[in-house]
Design brief:
homodimer; mainly alpha; 10 helices; 61% helix; DNA-binding; Homeodomain-like_sf (chains A, B); DNA binding (chains A, B); Repressor_TetR_C (chains A, B); transcription (chains A, B); transcription regulation (chains A, B)
DNA sequence: ACCTGAACACCGTTCAAGT
DNA sequence: ACCTGAACACCGTTCAAGT
């Protein structure tokens, strides 16, 4: 049933994931779902937990050294592997963020990540701050609030925009110019994710070895 | 009307911000709102834009040096000031993240932030990556996906939990022990936000001066 | 024990009708 | 031009009734 819910969201979008629609998908005549799940929130918690288990299966199959300085590479690989799961379920990040009750599988994921940091010599205090600093990046996604020039305004910049937004226009002109054949989509999500991730991991690594 | 929507969300919670309820609040008999707004999405876009303007008013009143190395302190102050607005509207971050169309005021905010980075000597390329790395932190919030020990399980750790989650339990025991009189709420949101922010700003500053 | 259909209390939104 | 009420097509959920 949770599997069916995930499949439905993957194929038709998360907004069509409704109790009635899901029941139809399962050839159950409507409100029988309530015998397997307390309410819709409970169903969504289950969906999150199942995806988190999918992530755990993927990352726990990785076998790399994590002692000392190797922690960083190990954490990096783990996080980027977790990310591949979200690439299959692009509707899932907002769902993960909206959950009040935390999924046991998500807790387990973070437990193991703290384990890697401990292997690297982190104090519990630093590991704690590290989890906060990473936030959703620890699980492999980062909610993009604002996608500067998401492909909408490629070549032509509206009249007066340069005066009102001098810096963004400047940035747009230069970065788009650097890579002329991809004027739209000049933000490489994967690159940007790794850039931000490395910035944080490097910073943590520096704190680790200075203590 | 947008003001009324924000007040309603502040007082009664964002889930009660419904077209019918908002109309009642304005003593308008229900569906007259559609003469001032295309649909609910449009209303929410307006709400986001108004809050973003509130942020811009606050940060543009700041007058500090931003040339060269001073960029970092200027950006830090700006972001922490923006954050104070969200502390008044704690329901707003998910709304900001859910918007498809970007608010002009949000764009303006980011334009000025890039301006600070330019003052600090950033290339446009680095400023671009910096925006992505900061993500929602640039605007003063970070969606916490997982609040390790958010006050629920203070002293008593369930049987078997230590074996299943050795690292989180270890972390919980140590960090809670450090500050015994605040066993619940051992995560100081403001401190954690600044920790993560400084980690990123310091990393960017290092890249800035190494180029 | 499990499923069902009708019903309830809500949504956002449309539309024809009022002033 | 602005507001209104009824109605439509959806929700999640309750509940009494079926097998």
């Amino acid at each position: 049933m949770l599997r069916a819910a995930i499949d439905l969201a993957d194929v038709e979008g998360v907004q069509t994931l409704t109790m009635r629609r899901l029941a139809k998908e399962l050839d159950a005549e409507a409100m029988s779902l309530y015998h397997h799940v307390a309410n819709k929130d409970d169903l969504l918690n289950g969906v999150v937990d199942l995806i988190a288990n999918e992530i755990n299966d993927a990352v726990e199959a990785i076998d790399v050294l994590s002692a000392g300085a190797a922690w960083k590479q190990a954490a990096r690989e783990r996080i980027l592997t977790a990310r591949t799961v979200f690439l299959r379920h692009p509707w899932a990040p907002p769902l993960f963020e909206s959950r009040a009750a935390v999924s046991p599988a998500v807790v387990r994921y973070h437990d193991r990540l703290v384990g890697l940091m401990r292997d690297g010599g982190f104090s519990y205090d630093l590991a704690h701050h590290a989890l906060h600093a990473l936030g959703s990046r620890a699980l492999g996604f980062s909610q993009e609030l604002f996608d500067p020039g998401d492909g909408s305004a490629p070549a032509e910049i509206p009249e007066g925009m340069a005066e009102q937004l001098p810096y963004l226009v400047g940035m747009l002109r230069e970065v788009a110019h650097d890579d002329p054949d991809s004027t739209l989509g000049w933000c490489d999500d994967q690159f940007e994710f790794e850039f931000g991730l490395d910035l944080i991991l490097d910073g943590l690594d520096r704190l680790r070895s200075s203590r």
